[in-house]
Amino acid sequence: MYWEDFLHVSAAEVENTVSSERVDQFKEALGFPGMPEGHVPPTFVRTFSFGDIQGLIWPDAGMIHAEQEYDYYRPLVPEETLFCSQRIDKVVRKTGRSGEMAFIYLTQTGKDSAEQTVFISRRVLVWKAAGRRSEGVPE
Hints:
By secondary structure, the protein is mainly β. It is built from 1 helix and 5 strands, in the order E-H-E-E-E-E. It has one helix spanning about 20-30; strands at about 15, 65-70, 80-95, 100-110, 115-130. A 5-stranded antiparallel beta sheet has the order 1-3-4-5-2, with no helix packed on it. Strand 4 and strand 5 (about 115-130) form a beta hairpin.
């Protein structure tokens, strides 16, 4: 099984609530407890679940976070529910001094109850398979 086997396969949507309590905890953890009430940091969406891509088992360790960007179409609103999913858009393989790596381009989307896109998160993850083979994890 390879990462490419999961290209363009979307996860089923998962409900996530922008809980005021969790937002406050997130701001505190970031060291911004004085941020204005009702303001939700853009990186808060990292706390969301984006659903499982059918048949894909993510590795427990060894995945390197390489890059991330967000597009927001409006601010997040405390206590709103968003419907989130993800998909792998591209896989690029490279070989370096330490072996083969897969660069996994992941898109994660959040929509509101009117099915309007609120945000899109694009991430690049690096999987260095050499010495990290795990049952069910793609190569």
